[in-house]
Amino acid sequence: GENVEQHPSTLSVQEGDSAVIKCTYSDSASNYFPWYKQELGKRPQLIIDIRSNVGEKKDQRIAVTLNKTAKHFSLHITETQPEDSAVYFCAARGHYGGATNKLIFGTGTLLAVQP
Amino acid sequence: DGGITQSPKYLFRKEGQNVTLSCEQNLNHDAMYWYRQDPGQGLRLIYYSQIVNDFQKGDIAEGYSVSREKKESFPLTVTSAQKNPTAFYLCASSQPGLAGPSYNEQFFGPGTRLTVL
Questions:
Q1: Cα torsion at B12, B66, B5, B71 (round to 10°)?
Q2: What is the pLDDT of residue A31?
Q3: Which of helix, strand or coil describes residue A10?
Q4: pLDDT average per 10 residues of sequence, chain B (117 residues)
Q5: Does residue A83 sit in helix, strand or coil?
Q6: Does B70 or A32 have the greater pLDDT score?
Q7: Does A94 touch chain B (CB under 8 A)?
Q8: Contact between chains at A101 and B110 (C-beta distance less than 8 A)
Q9: Strands B10-13 and B112-116, how do they pair?
Q10: A101 to chain B: nearest residue by CA?
Q11: What does the pLDDT look like over A33-45, one tens digit per residue?
Q12: How far is residue B12's CA from residue A28's CA, in Å, rounded to a whole number?
């Protein structure tokens, strides 16, 4: 079935360094790719998303890139800060069985930013 | 974050009991979802509903049931048939087809942590 793979599962960086999280998806019909941040014990919150007609999107220190040919998309966080520490999930949306708004999530990346 | 609520925050279940988790939203969203979150496994879809009075099984529906009698409510029942129900349960809603910044964004509730005693 459709799936989204996410790597790495854990990532530790020094404050001020960059962090990159990568995801691949299986359904070539996927057209929307959100990234969620989940702090410990809290709900996931959308931090950035990208649609299939765009190759890159930036929002301050966060950027997402999409390579449709390779079915690959990545989250880039620059100048990391301790408050960036959280679990990050990627997701892909496609036309799975007629349900046009269903998301398939990756397994998450635990990012730890060391002060 | 406001607009979608879940209750209770913590729930304890004895073996053989059915329990119902509540999810309510006032965002006027048509679509609602239930996810289960286990360590290292991300978010797995249990059930979803694209519109009131309709719902469909997700990837791990066995041992769960839902109803969608009202647009704002999507309760999840964890039945005794679910063999390993201890997990963090998240409800979400979205407005399919809405253009603009909120296109397809799923808004999550605060979650219910269910523990089997």
A1: -160
A2: 86
A3: strand
A4: 86 91 94 91 91 92 97 96 92 74 77 93
A5: helix
A6: B70
A7: no
A8: no
A9: parallel
A10: B96
A11: 999 999 988 999 9
A12: 42
